[in-house]
Amino acid sequence: MTALTLQVLFWIVVATGATAIASWLAHRSYRRFLRKARGPASKSLGRGEVPTKLDTLLDPLEAQNRGLSGLATLLDNSDAFAARALSAAQAGRSLDLMYYIWNTDLTGWLLLDALVAAADRGVRIRLLLDDVNVQGFDPAFLALTGHPLIEVRLFNPTRNRGHVIRRTVEMLLGLARFNRRMHGKLWIADSRMAIIGGRNIGDTYFGALEGGTRNSVDADMLLVGPKVDEVAATFDSYWNLGLSLPILALWPGFKMNLTKFCTRIACEVRTPSSRRYLAQTLDGRTAEAVLAGRLHWTDKVLLLADPPDKAYGNHSAPWMSTAIADILLNAQTEVRLITPYFVPGQAGIAGLTELAARGVRVCLLTNALSATDMLLVYGAYRRYRGALLAAGAVIHEFSPAPKPDRKRDVLHSKVFVIDGAQAIVGSLNFDLRSAFTNTELGLLFEHPVLVADITQMIDRLSAPDQAYAVSHSQHALRWTITRPGLPAVMLVEPEASRPQRAISWLVGLLPIQAYL
Question: What is the fold of 300-515?
Answer without folding.
Answer: Endonuclease; Chain A (3.30.870)
